[in-house]
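User: Predict structure, ligand 5-amino-5-deoxy-1-O-phosphono-D-mannitol.
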Amino acid sequence: MCGIVGYIGTKRAYPILIKGLQRLEYRGYDSAGVAMISETGSLNVYKAKGKVSDLEAFCQEKDITGCAGIAHTRWATHGEPNSTNAHPHYSASGRLALIHNGIIENYLTLKEKLIERGIQFRSVTDSEVLVQLVEYIMQNNGIELLEAVQVALHQVIGAYAIAILDREHPDTIICARQSSPLVVGLGDDGAFYLASDASPIAEYTDKVVYLNDGDIAVLQLGKELKVVNMDNETQHPKVKQIDVTLGQLEKGGYPYFMLKEIFEQPGCLRDCMRGRINVDADRITLSAVIDYREKLVSARRIIIVACGTSWHAGLIGKQLFESLCRIPVEVEYASEFRYRDPVIYPDDVVVAISQSGETADTLAAIELARKAGAFVFGVCNAIGASIPRQTSTGVYIHVGPEIGVASTKAFTGQVTVLSMLALCIANERRTIPGEQYKEMVKELTQIPDKMEQALKTNEQIERLAPIFTYAKNCLYLGRGYNFPVALEGALKLKEISYIHAEGYPAAEMKHGPIALIDSEMPVFVIATRDRLYEKVISNIQEVRARGGRVTALVTEGDTQIQKFADHIITLPDTLECFQPLIASIPLQLLAYHIAVCKGKDVDRPRNLAKSVTVE
Ligand code: M6R
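Assistant: Predicted complex:
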């Protein structure tokens, strides 16, 4: 969602801010803006509806001088996307400019009080209330910015990451965080960088501080980073080293990040397993399982909480944990779980899965589980994000930054971590024989090679894609481990091509969706060879009998399904439980190529945000 960038140093701020906004474009936004204190001391704010490139065009004839600035990409929540509602927002006198990510829940009450005291508002956003409130407190109490921010934040209910520029103090940016991410980069030359995640900072410094909830940071050029809380007590956040490389943030010759990320998957899974599976490929070691063995091994139940693609990974996790570890598992949409008053036992293990580590609903579900005394385990990609910091322990998936809004490599990374976790726990609980454990671990290490083979279907899928671009609806069918793959395939298509698609358990089709089938609706069936193979063939025949057009994903060597399908995509064989790691690849490619054929912006689909930091 919204993105924050800031810089204070000795270089020109504008190019750093614009580049930073471009790096954050993947998060999703509909307007952008920048504020800088110019060489002559004026505080200039420029904003534009649309892309960062529209902002650049708007700034062409403007004063873009100055070495201190803040910038923002806005994903509209309160008020339509236009240049007035875009950030930064000026204070009434024009002395301050503020950017904000998150939602101020009590903004209407605060706004009414400010209006009663004569403050006029320019926008309809909740964010503007913050800057007007801070300036009002400064003026009314004769206090400086830091103290006014502390007083103001005591009155605010909601989630925020904010950054404020003060024309009277051009060497300082003040920022604060509550339930919305904010990272400070420490330059070698006394400069400070600020961003919603490490991607805009990585090319300037590898030293960062991830602010914690309640932190207020003072970035003063040439001074040590000062972090306090609302009560002015000094905080001591740790300086961390980021391991994001520039190559990970560039497209590397691919037309879109999504395609790059699809093709990166074999390497990503090798990284994910590196150091965790030994060289003989017969043993998995996860430090979280060693450190918290008792909690995990004696879990009464596992509750998986997640959203979107991560929820689909959770559905695969359920099958892994139940069949290998014999632990009952529930998979919950975090957004439903948090409000449902669920029964949570202290000996439950709650597994929170999230690529970004910032999803508001998943964070709220974690909070609920923690309050109920459950042990919370995180499966996350973004290093240092909120979820890994709010869980008792966890495992990073280590697939590198995922920039494409449609999640691909994070999904297979999540499934790989869940596979390793289930195998570790099963081995500790002795719920699978030692030999089976070793065979499964070995097979898991073969998956990246098999993925490479699966990626060879790319050209075939590119050729097939135009056939499907005119479809209004598509159906994805799968059973067992492949049912979540069907859901995920359908979600990918919806997100980037805007074609309506449904994932369904193949056998459930006859209880309703079969009514939709005709020659106009493509049906994609995951029909790899497993326990339910023969049954899936029957389901394909049911589709064919009603004139449906079937594209089937089959295991190499299959000779049966081609008799019933219009198109066959052949995949390498693997164990049933690892099939999602292979079968997802052609479905990702299919969604990608269909969207490209339809001329869609694959990396930045309309209305979507990469990290959903509001509920
Ligand atoms: O960062 P998270 O994994 O918590 O995000 C959850 C969903 O918002 C996310 O998976 C979303 O569904 C993706 N756009 C799917 O491609």
